[in-house]
């Protein structure tokens, strides 16, 4: 190409970036918001981060950094910057690896002109949903004159052209494929390798958003070729493909507004093709200008194997031989059920499962790697496969924590030389003994993610050691000398991710006991939170002692460090660990080449929120007598209304919940910080408030429920404080340890189900399980309040809200007769006006006819917004059919959750929050001076209209 000014510069570090303005119609702004989580703030922030990443990336030499180009990838990955950056790398790499297919795409090239003249591909306009619609007439590709690569170049030209359209980036596309007039030559000219490359482009390398793909009149002889082509697609794309026997069926799927005359519409094909060709020609310089981008091909070729067109399964697997000492053979047999026959059979089954799994694209299949998971799960192949999936998924979801683990990276070297973790050797049981000196992590210089990366590097290094896989590890933790900064830098979400790695994600086998000592009081709350995310089995292994002297006896003599009265030189032990890291460096970095379908697995496991088997807070230690500074119950925050210092606002680390907060609550750091300051000032100056919590988490309850209107939030807080004093029989002295609370938990009156696909916490309420002779209305409200107070201590629940499912099957009439109209009115008034609850949905199932009258009165007391969120169903089957919650339900409903586990989770959650809930009584308000709530008991204006949704049960 001639040397001239390119339409878009490819300088990766320009002096300034252009200012982007969204100029598309309102439809696209709405689609961008709802489907892509895009708004002006999100977009600007993501562009800044991505440009910084490009500028700092040593393997990208030249790249477009204009907004339109980068938004291709950000919109494709719904503004996840790490995933968008990875998509950009893949795009740049495939262009370099196959330049004959994807570079020098010139629409004036004679062959390109010929294919354009045949008009196999036509843009027919936008449908009513804003999606770009295309018709492909496959028979118009000339199978005799043009090669598969030439047809592919034509398709790449089309893709590069339309990807410059922001409407296409946002709305995605609908594709209609007409296979009429095809000959067998149209299909046979494509080799398997060429089909693989082309599908990689359509489903992975180019940032394409598909709506649906419809095809018709596919000839029988073409089916094997098309099946081969689709075998390389990811499952998500395959699900969008529909094929019909007749063109008439295809025509039904084309939007009438853009349907060509040839398919029963009114749009002229020739006119469409002329307009499309004109747009292709107008963008010629832009498409050719893409060739100015440059990357380090050697580096990326090692990341994405240029031989991807070869079959994913190796032709042969390594033959494994057990070469460890006899001690490990004995441990493997007794503890892991491993022998030569079991091992070989399990490896064969697991390799076959990987080969057949459409969601795993690349994975190590050598014995040493797979045995990590098989030994972890005692050679249960299904459980080992699930452990592998979880491991691969977490690595992809948190690449900043678990990928690119390079021991030669300066930060990794710094952390290592501080000596926070040392491998002391192997004890007489064959276990690896590790010592963590927590104070050696730099609380000021290094972030939690950097410390976590170091520990991930240690874990990956040691997991390559078979002695570690078989024998497991014995860990000792020394907290002596730790400062507050060692603990305070860890957010709740950081702790959650790290514990997930230790107890769920990495296949680590722990010894019977994990001994810790010297935990300072100011660290106990953080460690408490950390352990609340552990599985119960791991929590039972942990013992905590007040002094370091108490754990010295747990070192075997040959492994006791000199600083604890032994002979082991820690410096020498650290040098041995460093050598092991250097030896394994290439192996650990090579793990980054494994690939999975991230979209599929991230929807399967919600790693950013709580899941039923992961969050079981409560009895953190098995020996309460040794607890000392460690405690299993969270300490209550201060109720001093004017503390010397306030805690800072921190956005939640869950990307899903941050987006919900932004989209639904208008929550931005600057807005939140300002609102917190305004609310704290109001509390400090309010003479009616004597004592009140002012910690950020508590106040954010009210700000979030009022969408950061601090005036409305202050009013709700005042109502909350007054309600607690006005109804002490409902809200006072809520002790979760009382026997009657345990009885209600055991009755399964209220059951926590975990999070739904939108991140909302779901609870099941069954009044048929309530002992009406024993539990009165006040007891029910007190129990509900304990549950609500415990779940809304979690900021993720404040953001996403709660979903309640009422199963009224077999509910007796007395359950409704217990409640007086005054009690209903007062309680609903508290729920809707005084309690900071985000009730997102209420599902009422199988309400008996005699309950309809009470239901109508309840609804009349609710706000219009809450009434609109109530849905009624005749049967549980109807509810399950209309709501995607089956997997959350207990097994007795056809779900997958064990009711005993669910009861335990509720008990543990209430236990953990006991002190916090009791401490709410320390807040105090002078009700007579609360001007905002003088009329709190008056009927709510405009909310007295009786409605009949409980009678009309056939309405969803």
- What is the structural class? alpha/beta
**Integer-rounded radius of gyration:** 31 Å
User: What distance lies between the first and last C-alpha atoms, to the nearest angstrom?
Assistant: 62 Å
Count of β-strands = 21
CATH-assigned homologous superfamily of the domain at 403-589 and 611-626: CRAL-TRIO lipid binding domain
Please report which band the strand proportion falls in: under 5%, 5-15%, 15-25%, 25-35%, 35-45% or over 45%: 5-15%
- Chain-averaged pLDDT: 86
Percent of residues in helices comes to: 40-55%
Question: Based on the structure given, which CATH architecture of the domain at 403-589 and 611-626 is correct?
Answer: 3-Layer(aba) Sandwich
Oligomer: single chain
- The helix count comes to 45
Low-pLDDT stretches: 305-312, 606-633, 935-956
Tell me the major beta sheet: 5 strands, mixed
What is the general shape?
Answer: globular
- Biggest sheet: strands side by side, in what order? 2-3-4-5-6
How would you describe the overall organization of this protein?
- Helices cover about 50% and strands about 10% of the residues.
- The two termini are about 60 Å apart.
- It has about 950 residues and is α/β, with parallel strands linked by helices.
- The C terminus is likely disordered.
- The strands form 6 sheets. A 5-stranded mixed beta sheet has the order 2-3-4-5-6. Strands 9-10-11-12-13 form a 5-stranded mixed beta sheet.
- Among the domains are: about 170 residues, CRAL-TRIO lipid binding domain (Phosphatidylinositol Transfer Protein Sec14p, 3-Layer(aba) Sandwich), CATH 3.40.525.10; about 200 residues, Phosphatidylinositol Transfer Protein Sec14p.
- Helix 2 crosses helix 3.
- It is globular.
- Strand 9 and strand 10 form a beta hairpin.
- It has 45 helices and 21 strands.
- It comes from Anopheles epiroticus.
- This is CRAL-TRIO domain-containing protein.
């Amino acid at each position: 190409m001639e040397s001239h000014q390119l339409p878009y510069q490819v300088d990766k570090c320009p002096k300034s970036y252009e200012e982007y303005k969204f100029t598309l119609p309102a439809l696209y702004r709405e689609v961008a918001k709802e489907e892509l989580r895009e708004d002006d703030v999100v977009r600007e922030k993501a562009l800044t981060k991505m440009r910084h990443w490009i500028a700092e990336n040593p393997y990208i030499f030249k790249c477009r950094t204009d907004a339109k180009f980068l938004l291709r990838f950000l919109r494709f990955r719904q503004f996840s910057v790490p995933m968008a950056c990875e998509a950009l790398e893949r795009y740049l790499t495939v262009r370099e690896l196959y330049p004959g297919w994807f570079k020098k795409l010139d629409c004036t090239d004679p062959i390109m002109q010929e294919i354009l003249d045949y008009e196999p591909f036509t843009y027919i306009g936008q449908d009513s949903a804003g999606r770009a619609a295309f018709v492909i007439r496959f028979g118009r590709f000339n199978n005799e004159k043009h090669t598969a690569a030439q047809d592919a170049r034509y398709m790449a030209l089309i893709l590069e052209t339309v990807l410059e359209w922001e409407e296409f980036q946002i709305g995605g596309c609908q594709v209609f494929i007409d296979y009429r007039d095809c000959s067998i030559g149209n299909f046979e000219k494509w080799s398997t390798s060429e089909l693989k490359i082309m599908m990689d482009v359509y489903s992975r390398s180019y940032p394409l958003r598909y709506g649906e793909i419809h095809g018709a009149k596919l000839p029988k002889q073409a089916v094997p070729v098309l099946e081969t082509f689709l075998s390389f697609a990811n499952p998500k794309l395959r699900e969008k493909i529909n094929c019909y026997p007749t063109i008439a069926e295809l025509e039904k799927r084309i939007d009438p507004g853009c349907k060509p005359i040839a398919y029963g519409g009114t749009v002229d094909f020739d006119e469409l093709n002329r307009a499309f060709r004109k747009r292709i020609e107008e963008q010629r310089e832009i498409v050719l200008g893409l060739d100015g981008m440059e990357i380090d091909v050697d580096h990326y070729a090692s990341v994405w194997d240029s031989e991807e067109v070869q079959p994913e399964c190796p032709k042969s697997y390594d033959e494994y031989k057990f070469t460890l000492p006899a001690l490990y053979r004995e441990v493997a047999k007794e503890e892991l059920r491993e022998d030569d026959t079991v091992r070989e059979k399990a490896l064969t089954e697991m390799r076959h499962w990987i080969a057949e799994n459409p969601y795993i694209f690349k994975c190590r299949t050598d014995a040493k790697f797979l045995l990590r998971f098989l030994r972890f799960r005692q050679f249960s192949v299904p459980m080992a496969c699930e452990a592998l999936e979880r491991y691969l998924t977490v690595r992809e979801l948190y690449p900043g924590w678990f990928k690119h683990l390079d021991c030669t990276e300066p930060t990794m070297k710094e952390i290592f030389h501080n000596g926070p973790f040392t491998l002391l050797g192997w004890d007489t049981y064959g276990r690896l003994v590790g010592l963590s000196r927590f104070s050696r992590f730099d609380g000021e210089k290094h972030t939690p993610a950097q410390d976590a990366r170091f520990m991930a590097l240690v874990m990956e290094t040691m997991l390559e050691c078979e002695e570690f896989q078989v024998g497991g590890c014995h860990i000792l933790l020394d907290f002596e000398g730790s400062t507050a900064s060692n603990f305070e830098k860890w957010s709740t979400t950081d702790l959650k991710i790290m514990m997930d790695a230790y107890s769920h994600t990495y296949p680590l086998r722990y010894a019977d006991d994990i001994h810790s000592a010297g935990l300072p009081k100011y660290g106990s709350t953080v460690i408490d939170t950390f352990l609340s995310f552990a599985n119960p089995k791991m929590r039972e292994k942990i013992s905590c002692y007040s002094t370091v002297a108490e754990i010295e006896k747990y070192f075997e003599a040959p492994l006791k460090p000199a600083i604890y009265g032994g002979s082991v030189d820690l410096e020498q032990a650290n040098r041995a660990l460093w050598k092991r890291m250097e030896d394994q460096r290439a192996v650990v970095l090579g793990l980054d080449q494994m690939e999975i379908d991230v979209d599929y697995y991230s929807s399967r496991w919600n790693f950013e929120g709580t899941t039923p088997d992961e969050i079981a807070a409560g009895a953190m230690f098995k020996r309460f007598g040794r607890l000392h500074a460690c405690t299993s119950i969270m300490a209550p925050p201060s109720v001093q209304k004017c503390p010397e210092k306030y805690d800072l606002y921190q956005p939640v680390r869950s990307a899903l919940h941050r987006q919900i907060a932004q989209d639904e609550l208008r929550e931005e750091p600057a807005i939140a910080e300002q609102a917190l300051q305004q609310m704290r000032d109001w509390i400090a100056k309010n003479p009616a408030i004597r004592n009140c919590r002012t910690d950020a988490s508590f106040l954010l309850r009210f700000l979030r429920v009022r969408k950061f209107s601090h005036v409305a939030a202050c009013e709700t807080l005042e109502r909350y404080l007054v309600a607690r004093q006005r109804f002490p029989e409902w809200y006072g002295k809520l002790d979760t340890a009382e026997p009657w609370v345990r009885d209600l938990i055991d009755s399964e009156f209220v059951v926590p189900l975990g999070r739904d696909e939108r991140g909302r916490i779901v609870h099941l309420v069954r009044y048929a399980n309530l002992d009406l002779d024993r539990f009165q209305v006040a007891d029910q409200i007190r129990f509900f309040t304990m549950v609500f107070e415990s779940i809304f201590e979690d900021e993720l629940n404040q953001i996403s809200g709660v979903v309640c499912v009422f199963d009224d099957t077999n509910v007796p009439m007395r359950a409704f007769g217990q409640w007086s109209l005054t009690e209903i009115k007062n309680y609903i008034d508290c729920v809707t006006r005084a309690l900071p609850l985000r009730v997102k949905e209420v599902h009422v199932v199988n309400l008996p006819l005699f309950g309809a009258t009470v239901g109508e009165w309840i609804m009349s007391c609710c706000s219009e917004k809450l009434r609109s969120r109530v849905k009624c169903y005749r049967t549980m089957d109807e509810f399950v059919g209309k709501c995607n919650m089956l997997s959350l339900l207990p097994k007795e409903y056809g779900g997958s959750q064990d009711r005993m586990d669910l009861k335990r989770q509720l008990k543990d959650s209430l236990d953990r929050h006991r002190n916090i809930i009791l401490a709410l009584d320390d807040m105090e308000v002078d009700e007579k001076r609360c001007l905002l709530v003088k009329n709190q008991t008056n009927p709510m204006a405009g909310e007295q209209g009786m409605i009949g949704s409980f009678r009309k049960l056939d309405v969803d």
